[in-house]
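Posting here for the record, re: zinc ion.
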Amino acid sequence: MIKAETNKTKNPDEDLPFIADILQCPFCLARIQIQEQTVRCVHCNKTYPIYQGVPFFARTGSADSWGQTREQLTSEPYQQNYQEVQDARDYNLKYQKYLLKRLSTKREYQLLNQLLSRQEHCATMLDLPCGGGRLSQQLAPFTDLLIEADIAVGQILFGKANSHVPTRRIWMTASAFHIPFQNSSIDAIVCIRLCHHLPAPAERERLLCELLRVARKFVIMSFFDYYSFKNTLRRMSSCLRYKKPKNTMTIRQVAEIARKNGGELVACPSLAIIGSGHRYALIEKK
Ligand SMILES: C[S@@+](CC[C@H](N)C(=O)[O-])C[C@H]1O[C@@H](n2cnc3c(N)ncnc32)[C@H](O)[C@@H]1O
Ligand SMILES: [Zn+2]
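Prediction output follows.
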């Protein structure tokens, strides 16, 4: 059950019309029409409910939902993790409570600042998945409109009630595998800490393809580097005792998927050389 922190019901007319022309149905890809309390696809007639001003566009599922063969391990269980506000709260409070997580957020702010400062100011930016808005303060100054989306309604309601920035924002649920926006319709997309939760290689590739489909100018996506010091140690130690392999990508794979989808990998700094295997890929659209 959804337990929101605020009961304020907002009329969708206030914000959604700003993006009405660029929305698309995550099922059939047709245009979406905004009505009083719902949003409806003009083609397949599917309706998307709106709760507390938040439209629910999330289409869950793995590779079979985009016409590929389903792999044995998928991210579907993970998609359910933060549907409750309480679980979302626990996740977000961990990042405030523990020193290592606070330090990691500080470093992530630095990386985002470094990468975003190289780009022109955006009219629109999509933070997907936004979680509870952990990175919003760093993203907000670089855009006129920040669209906050996550597959989990708990994260969205927690973020909407607890994260505050001066920039105009729109919140929604959405899957990064079926982004409810038309091709090249959003200036920039930032996708942090999702890729390494995707156990199926087809999911990791789909994620980057979808981000590049929707972005007009650039994408920033974090991934866990196969050749990072941390993963190399893990691979070596897993020879001695079995350890589940991490969901990694190589820089070369990221660059190749980018190239095939009209992008160019222009920077790929790591979060920390030793302590973390994460990298932030900055991909510019050509
Ligand atoms: C580790 S959190 C990161 C959130 C945020 N980017 C941050 O750095 O704090 C990963 C988020 O991905 C969301 N998620 C999982 N699968 C998703 C999908 N297919 N599409 C969009 N969000 C997804 C989860 O609900 C969760 O909030
Ligand atoms: Zn449709």
